[in-house]
Amino acid sequence: MLGFRIHLAVIWTVLLVYTVIVIANHGWGLFHVFFGDMLTMAWPGQFNLDFLGFLTLSALWLTWRHHFTPVAFLLGLCGLFGGIGFLAPYLMWASFDADGDVKTLFLGKQRAAAS
Asked: Maximum Cα–Cα distance for the chain, whole Å?
């Protein structure tokens, strides 16, 4: 679990630094660039479409893990639009909340206890 937590901290920190540099050099035009690349039907757009699939799976998992409650849908939206910038801190919190138990981490306390 320590290696997983270190990975989360490293990837979140690298993303934060990278994002600050990109915003400083190119501004806040993420959505225009992201979807614009998809419209060009080239490799950057293919990568973005693939990544969008991961974002939707992240959102679906977060929503499912929290039993499709109103808070779950809010967490799902955060996962969809926040990507690893949201998911890494969430998983860090969840790993401590689960006391390092992987089953509880990925299923949530209620489902882990029931299985």
From this structure: 50
Q: What are the domain boundaries of the chain? A: 2-114
Burial of 43 (0-12, 13-18, 19+ CB in 10 A): exposed
CA distances from 55 to 86, 91, 111, 113 (A): 11, 15, 23, 27
Give the global pTM: 0.90
Per-residue pLDDT of the chain (115 residues; tens, 9 = 90+): 999 999 999 999 999 999 999 999 999 988 899 999 999 999 999 999 999 999 999 999 999 999 999 999 999 999 999 999 999 999 999 999 999 999 999 999 999 999 8
Distance CA 84, CA 38 (A): 20
C-alpha torsion 100→113→111→106, nearest 10: 10
Q: Which amino acid is at 34?
A: F
Residue 70: other Cβ atoms inside 10 A: 8
